[in-house]
Write a structure and sequence with these properties.
The protein is of the alpha/beta class. Helices cover about 40% and strands about 15% of the residues.
Length: about 280
């Protein structure tokens, strides 16, 4: 099993690691998070407030910046974003119509690649859900793993210390069953939660994914793309790990947009496919 220090057998693109410490006279280091949203305006306010809290607690070490990927929403998420502009670096990337989660993830990774290849590059990037079920206060623990040498960090429902609130029991059973199936058939070292979309990526991982897959980092429809992305990270040699997740579905307002039966079928397709 590889450790973060075992770089000799890793792809060259993934060997250089960012430092969490900024140069003495340089800008404050930052983490860029993309949040795919489709009609999540009622949930965005609480989520962005927690980003402000992360900056208040950890701003001496790093800053969080946010890009909202508005996937054709009709509930004006830009109006929510505008309220936070004085206290948070946040902007909106808008799709002209609803294109689906995979398109939002690809938009996010195009933004990531532009950022990590710029002079003002982030020390890490990440994606989380826009329904306020994921807590940005998990970001510092994830960033510690990136700084330690990992390329992908998943906020996992299946690690000691994880808590799941507000999810009906049968969905928890199905999710756990899918995770066990992937572990048995397509095991990825360091990973137990294959479908949670709350993840952080190193700049080297973003560059490697772009070099291999270009602008279409994911191709699978709907929520199956989260599993596809994890497999593609493995295919470019990313070193992966997890931190515990506190999943709060009780904070989510509105109905779930997850077509559960269709997602299971599409995810099984990813399980059986070649990357």
């Amino acid at each position: 099993m590889r450790s973060p220090g075992d770089d000799a057998d890793r792809p060259r693109a993934l060997r250089a690691k960012p430092s969490r410490s900024a140069p003495a006279a340089g800008p404050r280091p930052y983490v860029l998070f993309a949040i795919p949203c489709f009609n999540e305006a009622q949930n965005l306010g609480g989520l962005l407030e927690r980003f402000v809290e992360v900056n208040r607690l950890h701003g001496a070490s790093f800053e969080t910046r946010v890009a909202i990927v508005d996937d054709g929403s009709v509930d004006n998420p830009a109006g929510v974003v505008e309220r936070f502009l004085p206290c948070l670096s946040v902007r909106t990337l808008k799709h002209p119509r609803n294109l689906g989660l995979s398109a939002a993830v690809n938009t996010a990774f195009r933004e990531f690649h532009a950022a990590v290849t710029s002079a003002d590059a982030p020390i890490a990037v990440g994606i989380m859900d826009g329904d306020d079920s994921h807590n940005p206060l998990t970001i510092p623990a994830m960033l510690d793993r990136i700084v330690a040498g990992h390329d992908v960090v998943v906020a996992s429902r299946y690690r000691y210390g994880s808590v799941v609130v507000g999810v009906v029991w049968w969905r928890q059973v199905l999710s756990a069953g899918m995770a066990l199936l992937f572990k048995a058939v397509r095991n990825i070292t360091g990973i137990r939660d294959y479908s949670c979309g709350f993840r952080m990526y190193s700049p080297a991982a973003v560059r490697a994914l772009d070099a291999r897959y270009g602008e279409n980092v994911v191709t699978r429809p709907s929520f199956a793309c989260t599993v596809e992305l994890l497999r593609r990270c493995a295919s470019v040699g990313c070193l992966m790990t997890e931190v515990p997740l506190v999943l709060r579905y009780d904070r989510k307002r509105g109905e779930s947009k997850l077509p559960f039966g269709r997602t299971i079928v599409q995810t099984l397709g990813v399980l059986l496919s070649r990357m």
